[in-house]
């Protein structure tokens, strides 16, 4: 009668452990039904589910593996598995799969405990855990330090909205970002990223900077804050703010553009995306003048924003054409997806304000970045603890991969 066994090998990581064990098994025509290996801080854990054919006696096989592992300084356990139990396990491969990603400057045991408690509470099983961020030095703590852990989970999830709400609550309490997404082919096949500009790609609201130069900073900033929180109609509030700029000298725009503070991680993110073959776009309720400046600086493919009316070198206080509001951003996202021949599930949208919610909801991956509470509550994903390059973690890109992508991109340029 054939036997099914789980073989667990653990001990100091060294070359040759896996090859030694599998070589011994191969001499008896053992079939490998499942295999997994992980190394944490120079300690190796190897797990294998194997089928020993009917014509083979497992005793000498296991004895050989035991002695070989002992010689390597490794511990080994053999656990028999009933055929019915194995079949139940094998049938589970059709269960829904999800990715839970934790992002922060540091990952703590308390954060992981809270997240895994929620996962277990919804009847999901953790299949694997991986660290995507690089190794952290305890002696040289960088201000832009990043930490990311990715959990693969399986099971039938009945209330996604409730789980997301629980994750959002924990994220606020413990200073961690938690992303939850289906593990499907689209996650590994995104191709277009649409960014808001103000307070997303740049750490400023350009209209507020223009207003300061015009001597009406406080009045305009107050309206901007209300609009981004969703308390005012965007189009009406935008026209009100632009009207305050009447008479501003055109030369002011260049000075502001050259001093725009680029958001942490934005340049690395765009370079990595370009190396991966992504298209990028700015869909902004701000102004084309600054969007085109960022386009040249970062290498963005498309820019759609508002055209500030200027006559005789002075701002008129009006906008040329229709205002790019939340509805228009969503329309532009759809048009770009069609132009690039993409399914909307292949599109990522990133923004911080209430006027970004329509495009965040339309994209396959909508990310509220350092966003207002209303936006975080209504977006499927949010990042508040890291820079924009934290988005790469949601695509499953490791720090090591990012470094290789950036090196390749810079060498090509």
Q: Output the structural class.
A: alpha/beta
CATH top level assignment of the largest domain:
Alpha Beta
In the CATH hierarchy, the third-tier topology of the largest domain is known as: Rossmann fold
Specify the biggest β-sheet.
7 strands, mixed
Report the CATH architecture of the largest domain: 3-Layer(aba) Sandwich
Number of helices: 16
Low-pLDDT ranges: none
How many domain units? 3
Query: How many DSSP-defined strands?
Result: 15
Widest sheet: strand order?
12-11-10-9-13-14-15
Strand content: 25-35%
The separation of the N and C termini measures 63 Å
C-alpha Rg, in Å? 27 Å
- Mean pLDDT across the residues is 93
Helical percentage: 25-40%
**How would you sum up the global shape?**
elongated
Oligomer classification: single chain
